[in-house]
Amino acid sequence: MMELVGNTSQQRNWRGIAIALLVIVLVCSLIVVAIILVTPRDTDKKIGEKFTFEDFLDQEYKTKYFHPIWLSGEEKFVYRNYEGSLIEHNCITNATAFIMDNSTFRELDAHNFKLSADKQYVLLSYDVHQIYRHSTIAKYKIYNVNTRMHEDLKGPEGLQFQYVGWGPKGHSLIFVQLNNLFYKKDIEDAPIQLTHDGVPDEIYNGIPDWVYEEEVLSSDNAVWWSPDGNSILYAMFNDTSVMKFEYVIYGDTHDPYVQSRRIAYPKAGTRNPTFTLRILNLNNMTTHNLEPPAEFKNRDYYFTTVVWQDNNHIFVSWLNREQNYSIHSLCGRENGACINNHRVLAEGGWVESNVRPLFTSDGRYYFIILPQRDGSSGHFKHIAKIESSQLRAEGRRQFLTNGMWDVMEIVGYDDELQIIYFIAIQSDDPRKRHLYSTSTNSNAENFKHPECLTCSYAEDCQYVSASFGVSGKFYVLGCEGPAIPIYILRSTDGGDLVVLEDNHLLKQKLANKAMPKADYFRIPISEHEQIWGKLLLPPVLKKEEVFAYPILMSVYGSPGTQMVTERFSLSWEHSLCSTHGIIIGFVDGRGSGGRGDNWLHANYKQFGTVEVDDTLAAGRFFSDLTYVNSSKKAIWGWSHGGFLTASVLGSGKNVFECGIAVAPVTDWRYYDSIYTERYMGTPHPGDNEDAYNASNISGKAIHFKSSRFLLIHGTGDDNVHFQNSAQLIRALTEADIYFRTQIYTDQQHSLNGGNTQKHLYETMEDFLLECFTGSSGKFEKSKASPENKQEPFEEEE
């Protein structure tokens, strides 16, 4: 009996031990499974290598864009091929001809080329020194295509030139030295000095001053040849009454004293430069000044566009200083007399100044993009056909397109078939750009019925560009996104002819890289309005996982620009996303382009209002996504984007924990007159003084206390002056706000000299990693909090 009891008790003990062991094994198994489920899988081997910061800086990862230079009167264009040689391509035969070997470019370290009209000579610029965004001081070689020899271009003032350009016939030349124009009918001829009143930094002939270069012409010259090459129209700018901005150049470390640089820089509400447009007959050297419209005399005004209609007439667009009223004039070569052909008045906004007319071959009509009202929806940009008769004071106008969508660019015209080609954005999807055509003949069946030529293309070609030859029969189509860009020569009646650039080397480099994935969103900001947003998602991100990633919003916010498009890009943000798992966010709020003028003009005369609200709304929206870490959000921007970043941080809404502002405008009184007054009016009492005060970042300094802030600027910035950051530094200091500052000595707005760019991005990356982790280095992804997380409507690429 005792043995029986003992055996039963022992049996029960073994059974208990077995059950306990099973429970332990089960618990351990559950723990292991849980760890496996919640641990991010190392998928680098499956999805590829990370796209690193070093890759971003590597030239082998730079996208190649194709820009053909069409030859006048021929179905040909020139370009540099993948080996760097200069090539002529015949569109009719699809044959190529060699012009110049790449070895000459390499021998001279040439930066640019210009082919003479007769294709006998090539201008090669070298020893180039950048002055401002477009202007340079450079030396030039003239390369003889037949002898394959080259020699220096020499001028009366030596070997350095501010501008050199060929004429439209033969190989005549115009060049500028010390702000004066010179002319050579033949390269063997002695130069003829055309102007004698040029004064460095004060009087400019044939080249723009700072503000016209930056804000109007976007060019290094202000010379326009007549088609026959017998006349030029040039601009003379007088900056003697413009206030000078002076900044320090620290220069060489061995110099115990600093130098200063003074530039004529008109700030908002201050004196502007004056100008004169002059026609000069190169055969008899007679000149005539163009007369502005009577309405603009004795007041400030600008010219924005110059185009020769034919050999005897010139189209000029004039604009009042307020930039809400423009007059198109047609002026005669023989006497400079002008008649007003068309007027444009903006309602509650500004007149677009960067539009160019395209004339028919007989000069009777021109096509131009103008605002057209579409009922209560407001104005949209459309193509108008305008009569250009010299006999009629006001040319008759007829719109060729209409509707709630924007035409962005006229790219070509087939004069024989009367078909015009253009790039447009459909308002319901401003991410895409497509090529369209329509007839300009009012009797044609497809008149006012545009046909989209690229909308049916594959999903990897939804953002296109096009460059047409003069005849309108051939064009280079660029599929610029979302896939890696490819450029194809096409015929308007026969399809593809040849692939000119496919970025095959870049494709090979990226084939094994783990690249970010793009998601698009419509973000509601009111009952009837939505803004477009975009996220670059880390390649390791799985939405079904319970991990949340930090987010960096990249912003710009300048009126008419777009950040949310399907255009391909490779940026610093891509390396952050791929290497560190940082989600990158973009938003196009009110004031962005492609959605009509009501949307575009939403923040007219009130910078720092609705675009700030929309950026904050996007930040909150992204924060509610299950895979976004709502406690690790940052924002950054450059220039106008720096202003928007600082405005968001200074709003007191505390949506972002960290922010970086690079070369920001902090007070619009400090920025140039043309850009600022276009959108903000003047800071004078009685105009828009209150809005200037309200947008001043220094007045918001106290609200920076809840965010980490990195302020970056170059002391040699001629565009957005260091003065902006200096005043913000003072305000933050007085408000007892802790922040970080990175100053780059003598660096300009682009911050790309020497090792500066590398140091800049490393500094910003280090700041962000510290923001997201509390210390520099790779951050750890955190587990998402399920509270208040929503999965809103999204479109996945």
Automatic annotation (TrEMBL):
Answer yes or no on keyword Signal. no
The name on file for this protein is Uncharacterized protein
Instruction: Give TM regions.
Output: 16-38
Arranged from A to Z, the UniProt key words for this protein are: Aminopeptidase, Glycoprotein, Hydrolase, Membrane, Protease, Serine protease, Signal-anchor, Transmembrane, Transmembrane helix
Question: Which ranges carry the Dipeptidylpeptidase IV N-terminal domain?
Answer: 116-485
Q: Where is this region: Disordered?
A: 777-797
Any keyword Chaperone? no
As for subcellular location, the record says: Cell projection, Invadopodium membrane; Cell projection, Lamellipodium membrane
What are the Peptidase S9 prolyl oligopeptidase catalytic domain coordinates in residue numbering? 569-773
